[in-house]
Amino acid sequence: MSKKSDITVIGADLRQIYMINKLHEKGYTVYTYGI
Fold this sequence. Notes:
By secondary structure, the protein is α+β, with helices and mostly antiparallel strands. It contains one helix and two strands, in the order E-H-E. A two-stranded parallel sheet has the order 1-2. The longest helix has 12 residues, at 14-25.
């Protein structure tokens, strides 16, 4: 059984934006602040 979590990212540079996109592609719910 696979359980996915919601993820919150606060602030961002290009590394975090890349990570956010990859997590979203894998089906995670990603909340962002300060992008």
